[in-house]
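Q: Here's a chain of 104 amino acids. Please give me its 3D structure as C-alpha cells.
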Amino acid sequence: MTLSRYHSAFNWVWETGGKADIRGVIYMDVSIPAIFILLGLFLIVGTKCNLWFLVDPTEKWSPGNSFSFIKKHFGKEYLILTNYLFGIVTLAVGLFILFRYCLV
C-alpha cells in the first residue's frame, strides 16, 4: 500500500483503520486548520464576551499592538467590527483547508 494512492495522509489512516504507522503525519495534516479554527473562534467569542485586550486595549500599546492601533485611529466600534470580520474570515479559511485538504 503506497501513500501516493491516497489524497491525504488522513484518508490513508482512515481507510487502514488507524493501524498504519505514519508517525505524526496525521497531526501535521490537521494541526494547521485547527490553529485557524481556534483563532477564529477565539476572536469571535472573545469579542462577544468583551475581553478587554480585544475590545478595549490600552492606547499606549498602539505602536506594537494592532488592536490598539485600530482603536486609536478608527474607534472602538470599528475595532469590534474588524474583530468579528477577521474572526469569521479566519474560521472560514480554517474550515476550507480542513475540508478541502484533510477530509477529502
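Q: Can you summarize the key feature?
A: The two ends are 19 Å apart (CA to CA).
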